[in-house]
Amino acid sequence: MIKTAYTIDLRPQLPFYTTGNRYQTDPPRNVGYTLILLHATGLHKETWEPVIQLLFGLSSKHSAPQGTIREAWAIECPNHGQSAVLNEKELEHTCTEEWDGWIYPRAVHAFLASSPSGLNLSEHKFIVAGHSMGGNAAVLLTALTPQLHIESVVLLDGTIASKSPERDHMDIILAQLVWPKPDVWRSRKDALRWHSSAPGFKSWDKAALELFVEYGLKAHPASKYPPPFTFKGVTLACNKSYEAACYRAKTHQEEAWEQLQHLHAYGPPVHVILSEKDEFSGAKLKQALLKGKYRGGAASVQYVENTSHMFPQQRPEATARALWKAIQASSERTPAAKL
Fold it and tell me: 176-185: per-residue pLDDT in tens?
């Protein structure tokens, strides 16, 4: 697998940098779908790498040009991962109360429109897949202009919901989870040891945990202090304040919900992949994703067995198989000549 990293200055559209990785098969392909992969709150773009590697393996066994994968792009939310490090100064002023849910999709749109390194992506046929918060961003991305050539959207436990008591309850749960969690470790080795046995992380695949420790953490701010005050530990790249600001943002929620209803009614089709277990009492919210308010509904629905909300990190192989099925379902609606 060939990996190429890009950093894009989003100004004037947004006052941030964002980073994205392009993943290609070796040798690269020039036919098939281009996947756009959007991560969950608190994670980072590299979290998709185990899933991408497995998807490329599935695609390599697919003989027909229709339904294959050309390449994949994992694009980061500007207050997460490496992007948060680049935007540290700007985030001190813009990520204090609420993190507008439109920022991530607008960053993705600006990133793709920038033609990174002169690449012309206008001819690519996109499938946009988003996990959790990334599902919100995937749906909102379809509303931005100029419109991208999006063939389908895949929601992996997407957190899209209209105003309801169930959504209010979910907000309470998230607020209580984010603030008490540890966020400083003496080294990445210590961080990996802690996460390997911590609730919420110990069920993760080993590769996903190692990627989180490498890309989801950053040098502690005190590492810049001179001796004897220096501290060479690590902390969260998307710190607890940034994460909580994402949860508090609500202005985009109703817009994302209405856009999802538009997609259910008029397309492009929406495929839904859900965890088998529901540790946050959100079953009713998940089921609401499947039905169109006006007409239509999810084009396909799958459940990933023996998983909870973080299933792309827990079972990347099963996640890749589910995504592959969604890609094949998308190709069945698309004439071969279009790929």
Answer: 899 999 999 9
Helix axes 133-141, 103-113, angle to 10 degrees: 50
Mean pLDDT score, 34-48: 98
Residues 248 and 277 sit within 8 Å (Cβ to Cβ)? no
Q: Residue 236 pLDDT > 70, yes or no?
A: yes
For 329, the token pair is 């379902």
In a domain, 207, yes or no: no
What is d(CA 26, CA 44) in angstroms, rounded to the nearest whole number? 24
Owning domain of residue 136:
2-162+250-338
The whole-number pLDDT of residue 233 equals: 97
Q: What is the mean pLDDT of the chain?
A: 92
Cβ 314 vs Cβ 204: under 8 Å? yes
Q: What is the end-to-end Cα distance of the chain in Å, rounded? A: 22
The count of domains in the chain is 1
Q: Distance of CA 53 to CAs 3, 19, 72, Å?
A: 11, 20, 10
Contact between 67 and 327 (Cβ < 8 Å): yes
Rounded to 5 degrees, φ, ψ at 47 are -60, -20
Asked if the structure places residue 26 within a domain, the reply is yes
**Residue 242 within any structural domain of the chain:** no
Query: pTM score, two decimals?
Result: 0.94
CATH number at residue 17: 3.40.50.1820
49 occurs within a structural domain? yes
Tell me if 290 sits within 8 A of 265, measured CB to CB. no
Q: What is the DSSP string of 170-184?
A: HHHHHHHHHTTS--E
Q: Identify whether the C-beta of residue 8 lies closer than 8 Å to the C-beta of residue 116.
A: yes
